[in-house]
Batch of 3 targets.
Target 1
Amino acid sequence: MKRHDFEPGKLVAALATLSACLLYAMDAGGKWDIPWFVIVPVLCGGLALAGVVSGVAYGIRRRNARR
């Protein structure tokens, strides 16, 4: 049975989305007072990092396949 490849970019994207959800939940619960514009850099930065991680992982996988 062939298992799927590990894709770290998806993991980073999921963690960025979960952190944005956590920020909103803590703000809604009254634990933190977070300005509305904080979520944009958190989410965009996390997704940009996920893209970089996916590109690096693809390059490594492609280089290993050529060998």
Note: Helices lie at 8-29, 39-66.
Target 2
Amino acid sequence: MDPAVVLVLCLSCLLLLFLWRQSSGRGKLPPGPTPLPIIGNMLRLNVKDIGKSFTNFSKAYGPVFTVYLGMKPAVVLHGYEVVKEAMIDHGEEFSGRGHFPVIDRINNGLGRWACLLGQSLIRRFTLMTLRNFGMGKRSVEERVQEEARCLVEELRKTEASPCDPTFILSCAPCNMICSIIFQNRFDYNDNHFLKLMEKLHVNVNILSSPWMQIYNNFPALIDYFPATFNTLFNNAAFIKSYILEKAKEHQESLDVNNPRDFIDCFLIKMEQEKNNQLSEFTFEALVVTAFDLFGAGTETISTTLKYALLLLLKHPEVTAKVQEEIDCVIGRHRSPCMQDKSHMPYTDAVIHEVQRYLDLVPTDLPHAVTRDIKFRNYLIPKISDAKIMLAS
């Protein structure tokens, strides 16, 4: 048979399959722009600013609409009110795990999504451990205070001369996460620390690139263009191998009555679950969870700090009021603590305004519904290829 005829037949079959899937599932989903076969609505999305594209769609289709990222539908919830309604009033139904193929490939299906979105035992354990500030004799607050003092000392070394603080602002949260996970912080010039920072920074840039949006919606491309991901996967492997090495060192000196950090807490939980063959608490899960905390916690905090400084420079009148409140409540001779928060409403409001203005993750992480749910007069089904995207 003529290859051209075969190609036409294959494309026709794909088109028919796409139209059938669209007609069978589309009626249950909210309205949205009409998708093209195979590529869906990708041509109508600005991959460099998907949030802006969603804002434009919401003007035409309302705060709840459907877009097709490739052949797969995504229900978008756009705006504060609808996101609040979904995540607060229907939090359990919208707590499912979304798919991020590149991250799933890095973590072998474990990690960030299970830790941050789902209702897994590891997620609950991680949140409980961090919320309790329960890692040995030193709380998370004390670790933050220590790193803040070190950050101030690094800034003082500039002697008030013009400088780019981006690197220092990245080191501080990364070091704080290291302190929580590995017990000890690093000197800002430590070679191991700088290597970890470099690997992490490169991976964040790769994952934030517009092309990554395409790869995540057409995951088959990962197998056809493996060279594109070599750097990403190799850097992740380097960081995880370092975490595994530290975990083994911790295991040799573990004191179950005196956990020093997150790794110790996880190892203790592993020991408690050792007779449970179905336990989620394994060395692999420990490495992936620590890897996610290391990556996600560093970049988000450093970016927020950088934007906060830029906004304070732009609005000196706000800076003056924040400084006045700090001097009045805290003074110049001690570190701030969580108890000060209730006495500093203006500073607290400024911090929240920075986070709102920054819009750090415009579309949030993909969610999925845990069951069929009727939401704002639309039936959102629990199907494996549909995900929920939250947009500000």
Note: Residues 3-99+366-391 form one domain.
Target 3
Amino acid sequence: MAILPMNTPNQPSNNQYQLPERVKIVEVGPRDGLQSEVAISLNDKISLVNMLSHTGLSMIESGSFVSPKWIPQMANSGELFRRIKRTKGVTYSALTPNLIGLNAAIAANVDEIAIFGSASESFSRKNINCSITDSLRQFSPVVKQALAAGLPVRGYISCTLGCPYEGYISINKVAKVAQQLQQMGCYQISLGDTVGVGTPEATKAMINAVSQYVSVDKLAVHFHDTYGQALANIYAALQLGVSVIDSAVAGLGGCPYAQGASGNVASEDVVYMLNGLGIESGVDLSELIAVGNFISERLKRSNGSKVAQAYPAAQALFQSLI
């Protein structure tokens, strides 16, 4: 039975790597997580965002403005953004794949938007019904209009370490898509392992390839935990200097277009690892676990975070040793 780790000095694992002193966690549970779960009430989604706002997170991806025909779980995102209680210092972002979605996001007073491309032709056609080239062409006016409206734009790339339809994806293809998104105006590129097939060395190779076109300080990582490699992959990314991590409370999610893909890496598990490495995140682990338990109960599912499952027993043991 493990005791919660005390913070340790931030030291490189060897002479080659220097871990970042602080990491920003982008909480994607309310969007990327819930879009692949059973539908819950708008009030529960609002409560989720409000509760996450008080954990120390500085960015919460709270919804998406997409056609309800494709993602019905996100149909009420506009109402959600109008009703959440915003906390100072927290950015509330949304996915907006087209100009219609962008205009709806602006009307709902979204703080930041994201666009979602792919490194896989097959996945791009399944996900957004067009080729990679066409998708980038369609995103260009969205980014231009968003920036004109004063909204920062974040870019996602899916299937960076493998595709459910094509298998291996060339890391050079990932790099070129990242370069195009940055040139378009995205201030940050989030590299997604959509089906969770990546391993640490593959992660390093992919990030090294992308960093030839986009500097590491403008990269984030987004891992699903299908094969149990997400934390190891995140650690590999940290060793290369990546300091922004996407994760979902309670390990929510999957991918509606990638059968068999499990949820995002759990935010609780990421925070626990960062604490053990002596890396600051600003997130209160106990409060985050409480939020994960809340949304898991509403979804009538078990909490997907290993840390949340172990936490009560570990806390009890810790207290008995004090």
Note: The beta strands are 24-27, 59-64, 91-95, 112-118, 153-158, 188-193, 219-223, 244-247.
